Amino acid sequence: MLRCEGATLDYGSYRALDGVSVHVEAGELVVMLGANGAGKSSLFLAISGLRRLKAGAIRLGGRDLAGAKPSAIVEAGLVHCPEGRKLFPGMSVEKNLRLGAYVHRRDPARSEEILDEVFGMFPILREKRHDPAGSLSGGQQQMVAIGRALMGRPKVLLLDEPSLGLAPLVVKQVLEAVKAINAAGTTVLLAEQNAFAALQIADRAYVLENGRIVMEGEPATLLRDEGIRRAYIGA
Description:
Strand order of the largest sheet: 6-7-8-3-9-10
Number of domains: 2
Order of helices and strands: EEEHEEHEHHHHEHEHEEHH
CATH class of the largest domain: Alpha Beta
Distance between the termini: 34 Å
Radius of gyration: 17 Å
Helix content: 25-40%
Number of helices: 10
Oligomer: single chain
Largest sheet: 6 strands, mixed
CATH topology of the largest domain: Rossmann fold
Mean pLDDT: 92
Structural class: alpha/beta
CATH architecture of the largest domain: 3-Layer(aba) Sandwich
Strand content: 25-35%
């Protein structure tokens, strides 16, 4: 479904990605683990067309995404839910959600159908649909961000640190929602620092350090690795 081959990305003289190769098959939930600055967000920005690679290739369902505009990538079925939520705080919850359905602007009935599905997944958002997004709790804002991404009805969903800054109970709720989204048929690439929680719902995982993939495997394999446990789990 999604393949990155030798992805290399520079910010001036700084190399953020150094020959990264990853793949996510249709229906998988794959976790990208790594500390701050490891390159997770840079990889997601490159995949979604917001940053241009210096070298390498990114393919979605066999289609080369090199040079494609972010809007075209969304229309192709890949949607990026960024770190930090990036909501419009003064706009209502519903208006924030509807922005994600721009790709379906010629089919209002479809947008309404997807909006109802999002409200079904996050009932609190239906209750607060007319409230400013900035008035919501951190967990509720994250639900809006995920819901906005789902409004595009993606085939592949990139989720960048959805649990960042949230209380443990809310982290559990958010990751349960991610698992449900995947179970409903959406392929998910999830970037997370909360390694233990993320590995509980993943099919496979990669570990990214200093812009390079240093390990790949099934969750059980990574959980048994002493180095991974020390670096990312603390036990």
